[in-house]
Specification:
heterodimer, A: mainly beta, five-stranded antiparallel sheet, 0% helix, B: mainly beta, seven-stranded mixed sheet, four-stranded antiparallel sheet
Chain lengths: 115, 109
Amino acid sequence: QKEVEQNSGPLSVPEGAIASLNCTYSDRGSQSFFWYRQYSGKSPELIMSIYSNGDKEDGRFTAQLNKASQYVSLLIRDSQPSDSATYLCAVKGSRGGTSYGKLTFGQGTILTVHP
Amino acid sequence: GAVVSQHPSRVICKSGTSVKIECRSLDFQATTMFWYRQFPKKSLMLMATSNEGSKATYEQGVEKDKFLINHASLTLSTLTVTSAHPEDSSFYICSAEQFFGPGTRLTVL
C-alpha cells in the first residue's frame, strides 16, 4: 500500500462544475495535510492546508479531513479552465515515524476543466 | 503566505562544471529546508533534508558528494551540483515548511 494515494486520473470536468479530488494516507499519526496545484513546468503552489477533522473553506476550495478514515479531499467549486493542472496531496510525517517532518506526496491527479 | 525564493531560475552549463542553487526563506526562519528534483511528467523526488548548522540528510540513492548542501543560516540553503553531467539536467525545487520555491531548471550540455 502506498503511503499517500490519490484517486486515479485524469479527471475532466466541464467549466462551472465541482471537481472532487480524493486522497488516503497510511500514517495514522499524521497531523498536517496539504493540497498543492502544479502547472506544467512550474513548482507546486500551496492552495490548502488542513489540520483538524472537518471542512475548511477558502474561496472556491474546500478541504475535508477525516482522520479516523485517513482520508482527505479537495473540492473545487465553479471550476474554471485555469484550474486545469496537476493536484498533489501531501501528508507531513508524524513524530516517531521514518518520515517525520517530511512531506509525502500522492502521485497527483491531472485535472482538466473544459469550456 | 510565506515566500521561498530560489536563484537562479534557469541555468545552462557545460558538462563537468559545478552549479550552485540558492534557496531563501524571505519572511520566516527555517531550520530545515528540503531539496527536490523533478523530471518531466514525473513526481517530485525528495533528494535531501537541509539542516541549519549541521549536515544534510540524504535520501537513499542520492550521492552526497555530488549534491552538496550547505545550510549556513536560518534563511539560506544552497545546493551545489558538482561535476554536472547531462543526466543531472532536471528541475530542482526547494521547500521550507510547506512552501515551495519557484524552482531552478538546470540544463547540462
